[in-house]
Specification:
By secondary structure, this protein is mainly α. It contains 5 helices and no strands.
Length: about 140
């Protein structure tokens, strides 16, 4: 039963995400498909997964307990902070920080996750911004708007 409750809540979230995504308008066309495609595709994928869970729930779901529940909450908080700080810190810094947090939650060493965070933030920014020409914010720290 808890799987179905979660699925219904997640479907409502997906509907809200699709509604907000549909309202995204770019003042000019800077990409072939425009900025609304990513949130809409993501909402559709999540809605399909939630629908699967709604109609084919696990007969005996095993929800996280103890430290796993705390780690799950911290990860959700990290990604919420990522979404809130994305424009302020910019894509490279926000991505590096969330990579460090998630890496630590999965038991990575400080040196390893720090190097991975820097590589992930810089590498993904270069891939998207320079190679794929998807404009990403640099943030105020790096002189962006």
């Amino acid at each position: 039963m808890s799987d179905r409750v979660f699925a219904v809540v997640w479907l409502l979230f997906c509907a809200g995400m699709a509604w907000v995504g549909w309202a995204i308008q770019a003042p000019f066309s800077y990409e072939p498909i425009g900025p609304r495609a990513f949130p809409l595709l993501l909402a559709v994928g999540m809605a399909l997964s939630a629908a699967w869970l709604l109609f084919r729930p696990d007969p005996a779901p095993d929800w996280p307990a103890g430290s796993l529940r705390a780690k799950t909450a911290l990860m959700v908080g990290a990604f919420l902070a990522y979404s809130l700080l994305f424009e302020v810190l910019g894509f490279p810094m926000a991505t590096a920080l969330v990579t460090v947090v998630v890496g630590r939650l999965f038991g990575g060493t400080w040196v390893g996750v720090s190097l991975g965070g820097v590589a992930m933030g810089a590498g993904m920014w270069f891939l998207f911004d320079r190679l794929l020409e998807v404009t990403l914010p640099l943030g105020r720290l790096f002189g962006g708007s």
